[in-house]
Amino acid sequence: MDEMEAKYRFLSSQYIHFINSQTNFERVVTPTQPHFGRLETTLFQLVNHVSNHSTYHRGNLSAMLRQAGHSGVSTDYVFYLFERQREGEKSSPWNNF
């Protein structure tokens, strides 16, 4: 678990650095996906996709836990923010990096 947390913190710090170094989220980017080909979109749309896609993975993990007999938990980001506030932490998770 410690190794996973360390990797998460490292990847999170890289993501934050990337976001903070951007000056134009409306710039056009053209990623290629092996099955669908090239896509012309904006950097903003890709960042939005990353945030949205993490919801898919949280749902998968929650379903696997329930199938293994564990109780599910809320995976909505806003509930995470409420929990942090209840614990007396600042609402921004980026303060840890």
Care to give the gist of this entry?
GO terms for molecular function: metal ion binding. The chain is mainly alpha-helical.
Question: What would you note in describing this structure?
Answer:
The chain is mainly alpha-helical and 97 residues long. It has one domain. The protein is built from 3 helices and 4 strands. The strands form 2 sheets. Strands 1-4 form a two-stranded antiparallel ribbon. Strands 2-3 form a two-stranded antiparallel ribbon. A hairpin with a 3-residue loop joins strand 2 (32-33) and strand 3.
Topology, element by element:
Elements: H1 2-21, E1 28-29, E2 32-33, E3 37-38, E4 41-42, H2 43-67, H3 77-86
Antiparallel strand pairs: 1-4, 2-3
How many domains? The number is 1
- Overall pLDDT metric: 87
The total of helices stands at: 3
Structural class: mainly alpha
Q: What sequence of helices (H) and strands (E) makes up the elements?
A: HEEEEHH
Tally of DSSP β-strands:
4
The fraction of residues assigned to DSSP E strands is: 5-15%
